[in-house]
Amino acid sequence: MLSFIRILLALFYFVAVAVVGCFLSLFRPFDPDNTRIFARIYSWGGTRILGIKLNIKGVEGTVDMPPSVVIANHQDNLDLYICGGAIPKRTVSVGKKSLLYIPGFGLLYWLAGNVLIDRGNSKNSKAKLNVTTEALTKGNRSIWVFPEGTRNQGKNMLPFKKGAFRMAIEAGVPIVPICVSSYSGRLKFNKLVSGTVNIQVLDPINTNGMTVKDTDRLMDECWNKMKQTIDRLDEETPLV
C-alpha cells in the first residue's frame, strides 16, 4: 500500500513541478540554469516522497566548473529524481525531440534550454554534433549526457557510445564523470526508507590536444574509471 501511495504522489509531484516550472520559465526562457534549478527541485521532493536516502560527494568541485561534458550512468526513469541533485550550474542535457510530447514536462524541458535532437535521423549526426559543440563553446553551457544511450536497469554499465566523447574533443572541453550506485530494482518502496543511493562526482578528465583519433581511448578511460567507482559505491551502499 505504501508503495502504491508513493508512486501516485511521485507522479503528481512530477506533473506539479512541470506545470509550475513552465510558468516560471516564461520569465527567463532558455536560461541554461533553469535545468539545474528544476532538476534539484525534482530531486529534493522526489527522493523524500519515495523514501530514498541520497548521498552526493564531490559536487563542490563543480562550483567553478568551466563548460564541460558531464556523463553519468543511466539506470531508470527515476534518474531525474536521483541525479537531479548532482547537476552542475549552467548544465543542460541532450534529449530526443519526442520528449516534447510528454504533457507539461516536455514544455519545461524545452524552456529550460535543453538541446533537442532527432535521434532517429542518422543523416544529421554531423549537425547534432555542431549544435552541441556550439552550446559548449559559444553558449557557455555544460552538456549532460548518458553515454550508454539507454537504461541499464542497474544490472551493469553498458558500453558507451562515442557521441559525448567526440563532442568534448571537438569543443576542447573536459569530461566530468558522475557515478551513481546501482539502485534500479533494489529500492523497496513499501518500506519507510526505500534505500540509499550514493553518488560520486569524479575529477574532470582533460581533452586538451586530443583529436578524433583519441575518441576510443578517451571513451575507454572514462568507462573504466566509472565502472571502478560504481563497483566501490555498490560495496559501500547498504541493502534494504
Q: In words, what does this structure look like?
A:
The structure is a single chain. Helix 5 crosses helix 6 (163-171). Strand 3 (91-96), helix 4 (105-111) and strand 4 (115-117) form a beta-alpha-beta unit. The chain has a single domain, classed as Glycerol-3-phosphate (1)-acyltransferase. The chain has 240 residues and is α/β, with parallel strands linked by helices. The chain is 40% helix and 15% strand. It contains 7 helices and 7 strands. Keywords: Acyltransferase, Lipid biosynthesis, Lipid metabolism, Membrane, Phospholipid biosynthesis, Phospholipid metabolism, Transferase, Transmembrane, Transmembrane helix.
Number of strands: 7
The sequence of SSEs as H and E is HHEEHEHEHEHEEH
Domain module count: 1
- Separation of the first and last Cα atoms: 18 Å
The CATH class, by name, is: Alpha Beta
Average pLDDT number = 89
Gyration radius, in Å: 17 Å
Structural class: alpha/beta
> Helix count?
7
Strand content: 15-25%
Largest sheet: 7 strands, mixed
**Helicity range:** 40-55%
In CATH terms, what is the architecture?
Answer: 3-Layer(aba) Sandwich
Per the CATH scheme, the topology name is: Glycerol-3-phosphate (1)-acyltransferase
Order of strands in the sheet with most strands: 1-7-6-2-5-3-4
Sum up the overall morphology in one term.
Answer: globular
The low-confidence runs, each spanning 5 or more residues with pLDDT under 50, are none
Pfam family, one: Acyltransferase
Domain Phospholipid/glycerol acyltransferase: 68-183
Family: Belongs to the 1-acyl-sn-glycerol-3-phosphate acyltransferase family.
Organism: Alkalimarinus alittae
